Amino acid sequence: MAISKNTKPCSETISFAPPAMPTWVDKVNDDSGSDIRKNMDKTTGIKYLIKGVSDAYKDNTNLATIDFRIKNN
């Protein structure tokens, strides 16, 4: 990568926020666990387990930050 000699030094920050609940969680969740044969491709209560872990981090609005500077030598 080449940086033009006319480029002034600058800095930038990239931040990563927590993602939303994935759509697959609702698709694979079984709330009742009553018809096991019909729901062999689902997991009873998985939505609540994943949501519980997610809720533990809900106050963290920023998961990571990367600071970098670009300058000419």
UniProtKB/TrEMBL annotation:
Highest taxon listed in the record's lineage: Bacteria
Protein name: Uncharacterized protein
Organism: Segatella copri
